[in-house]
Design brief:
By secondary structure, this protein is an alpha/beta fold. 24% of the residues lie in helices and 28% in strands. It contains 16 helices and 37 strands. Strands 29, 30, 31, 32, 33, 34, 35, 36 and 37 form a 9-stranded mixed sheet that branches. Strand 8 and strand 9 form a beta hairpin. Helix 3 runs parallel beside helix 6 and helix 11 packs across helix 12. The chain starts with 10 loop residues before the first helix and ends with a strand.
Amino acid sequence: MRKQFRDLASPADAREAIASLDLTPDAETVGLEAARGRVLAERIDAELDVPGFDRASMDGYAVRARDTFGADEADPAELDLVGAVHAGTEPDVAVDAGTAVEISTGAVMPPGADAVVIVERTEERDGSLVVYSAVAPGDSVMPAGTDIAAGARALGPGTRLTPREIGLLSALGVDEVPVRGKPTVGIVSTGDELVRPGDELRPEAGEIYDVNSYTIAAGVEEAGGVPTLYPHAGDDYEEMERLLHKAADECDLVLSSGSTSASAVDVIYRVVEERGELLLHGVSVKPGKPMLVGTLGEGSAYIGLPGYPVSALTIFRTFVAPAIRDAAGLSEPRTATVEGAMAARERYAEGRTRLMPVGLVDDGDGNTLVYPVDKGSGATTSLVEADGVVEVSADVEYLAESESVTVNLFSPDVRAPALLGVGEDDPALSRLLDRVSSPRYLPFGSREGLRRLRDGISDVAVVAGDRGDAADGIDAVELGSWTREWGLVVPTGNPEGVSGLADLVDGDLRFINRDSNSGLRTDLGNAVAALADERGTTRHELVESIEGFDRGTKAFESPARAVAAGRADAGLGLRATADSLGLDFVSLGTQPVAVLANPDRTEKPGVDSFRDALAASDDVFAALAGVERGYAPR
């Protein structure tokens, strides 16, 4: 039976359904050494005074205040010095009329004394104490119970224990405290295609590594819960039922990812309906429409997350993490949101709430700009390219450039990168970025790099080849450049005897190209056009004769790796890549690579750091075959 998404719940209804689940764990008692960050489950009253005695708050002399009345520099008081009291010892001397006792900070006030004269206002002379300043009763004395008195309310339930509270509990002699339990969360990833990281992966069989189990587990821990990872359930009903109910028996909340969308193999909703209660199936949000909320077994809470990593993390962050924090007694982090301005106009009109993944970048004046990160819900790299989510109402058709938005950060410690670059991927560039602190680089190709630079999103664009018309109207400062040798990567020994571009056109070769945003793809297209001119034919005709020309890959090493794996006879790539993978190479020429900076951000620390890396990069270029410095950065 195929489950259809009808009557999608609103985000408010989804939050209400989750709030109705009971995730609250039992309270527990922990030792004080393990209490930091925990939340008190009960009130704690002081059972003793802190301090438990009158003590000196300064080094000096314990006296009777009335014996110093009228004392000053011209007419000091003179008292008999009869002993001393140090911290941690019980006084063995009393202060009578006309006498004084030397005392250390923190020491017990001796009987008879009601004030301390600080040492700077006294002088010892022949066994006597000369006092040059009068004191009043209580001066430089901390009475018993000043911090907190016996019987007083020390800390209330719901208090998060920081080092300050732990210090108070220590002063009260408390060695263990009752705290709110951390909700235990069982995580079950479903899907026959999933493989745990570290196990052997078979891409040819459609297998992928399990991303969600570890991503969501980290999110659970960050929200104050205790994650437990269960084995993969696959798409088998009985195994899925067994694992979900095992997790429900052992945990306060069960989270699954995958098998929640409307497809024939999705059976989780059946498990929930047959052995629990399904509260909702589908929420009117993008990404993340296929979400389940319900109970399992004897009322254990259950939430089903989408299978795509970005969707799963977005839904978790928006709907589930707040519920876990609430169950753990933790408040929403104050630094979990940031205000920013849209770097460019963003259109949207789908009639449902959009949870838009976004990245952050600081402009030249230190203001926060926000830009959409949208490579599709299935793109795991979006997890690190996005810093948070902007919630866009269902009735909003577009967000205007410079419009103020609130970003719900994926983590309270998220910060904008020191440098945001977009453009061509390149082995030399990868090494240069290693020398910049906290960069973010999006290898979307030269064309996209220029577009993002023009729109004021990126700090720098890395552009390969002739910029051509794509650079028209773009104001930029060139930081530096290098050249790289490009051509055809072929198997070791070049078994097909490839000698140039003509062999791709005339031979029966399997070819792997780069995507249309790549500068390498542009130069290859230009070379094909030149060959067509030589032959008196059209570029289109030659392209049609090259098997695989229209199938492009995004990463610069992908064609070479396809050749190495035997899936292609030739691939578009770089000499540096061929050498690093032990493959042969047929050169088709050299190509310039330039780093262009937004002129309003040339003084930004991250851009300045990148400029310095370019200036001191001789070793980078020397280490890579077919790569040479173009010229010194300006």
